[in-house]
Amino acid sequence: MEVPVSVESSESDDEDVSSSKLEKQLEHFREKWKEELTTKQSPLSPDGSGESEEPLSVEAQAMDYFQRGVNLERIGSVYEAILWYRKAIRLDPDIEIKMFKNDKANEKQAEADELKQESEENEENLIEKFRDLLLTESKICQKAYAQQGRHISDLPYEVLLSICHWIVSDQLDARALDRFSSVCRGFFLCARDGELWRKICVKTWGVHAGDTEAYGSWRNMYFNRPHLFFDGVYISKATYMRQGEAGLDSFYRPWQFVEYYRYFRFFPDGSFFMMTSPMDPKSCVQLLKTKMAKNPDSSVVVGHYRLTGDRVSGLATKVNVTKVKQMKRGKQIQQSLVSEQLFYMEFVVEKTTKKRNYKLAWTNYEIRTKNPNNTEEVYNFPLNAIDFPPFFFSRVRSYAAVSTAPLD
Asked: Residue 127: is its pLDDT beyond 50?
């Protein structure tokens, strides 16, 4: 038996199915349209999520547009690349020059990192090679010319290590040790002794020197970790202008250009010398050579410092004695008024363009004056690059010319 099918019901079902499809397509179109609007209104984040935590600067956004153009040009989409280039130039007309400089800086940094890694690997291989040669030849070095007397190669390895302790000395002259290592392969091995460099690091940072896990060796720690140098002077040159005395006709008023220097000499035992003088460095370095140096005008201030990370904090004391004449019971009596000045200084160890740890920048400078009447005055200097320029290290050869004591 056949069941009759209604024509009207089938047509209504077809209309319902088509209307539902249209609604789904319309909803899909709305969602896609909303996504496009949100991506155009907010820049993409680095992870591509479409949400930016911080708005990009104009220069950063221009760099992003320019980089997109570069990527499109590499795959052959020149027309789309030109559109992104135009957007970048509208934001920053000099974006092409900045991108070029940025790429050059990244290339130089990558080359420097690669060379550093290769040099470390080559040095490790060289040390292993020299050790193998030392075991086979049973001598630290060989004679270059025949001679009748004893040669330094006849000395045992332990004696040469003791000589290295005298080369470094109590002034921690690591530069002299590196020069010693360039003589021959045997001296190179002695100068790379791990225990020797451990003593240098302990002498530099104390018992809290730590371990070599982050640096690989004690020698790498010494050269890569912030520290102070003891075989020279840190010098800061300051200048300023001041108005001179007017002439008799009050028409001519000269200006004077004043130039002076600040000197710092640090010692491994935690003490330092501080000196401010208009004399040039050649005339002042001898006053800071040793702790027994005589200074008749008492311009050298002695203090103590502490190195914590890359921060150097120092405290120096200076006693000023002022003689005052007073009348007492009809007699003139001379009295001495004593005032004490405390200098609190803080620096940060920085690197220059070519050398590491050669720069000291001011971070704090305070003077406390204790007057004879038991009052105290405190003055905190406002630091700026003109009045308080940074210190730069200058090596003085005479400081490390003679070793007075070995490294202990």
From this structure: yes
